[in-house]
UniProtKB/TrEMBL annotation:
It comes from Aureimonas phyllosphaerae. PROSITE patterns: MOP. Residues 2-67 form the Mop domain. The keyword Ribonucleoprotein does not apply. Keywords: Molybdenum. Signal peptide: none annotated. GO terms for biological process: molybdate ion transport. InterPro entries: Mo/tungstate-bd_C_term_dom, Mop_domain, Transp-assoc_OB_typ1. The keyword Transmembrane does not apply. This is Molybdopterin-binding protein. It comes from the Bacteria. NCBIfam families: Mop.
Length: 68
């Protein structure tokens, strides 16, 4: 797989929570949980299952920082 995004984080799927149209897929990346919201159709097309290795690919034009 070759993609333009530079932030590709390999991890393991720990949960897939499906809603009416959107699923929240949580991936454990070295102890940090990364959550992605994708369509239920994408979950099915990719054959995603809990325990499976997967990549969280981050592509963003802005990174914001906040403090208390």
């Amino acid at each position: 797989m070759r993609i333009s995004a530079r932030n590709s984080l390999k991890g393991r799927i720990v949960s897939i929570d499906k809603g009416a149209t959107t699923a929240h897929v949580r991936i454990d990346v070295g102890g940090a949980i990364v959550t992605s919201a994708i369509t239920n159709a994408a979950v099915e097309e990719l054959g995603l299952e809990e325990g499976q290795e997967a990549y969280a690919v981050v592509k963003a034009s802005d990174v914001m920082i906040g403090v208390d």
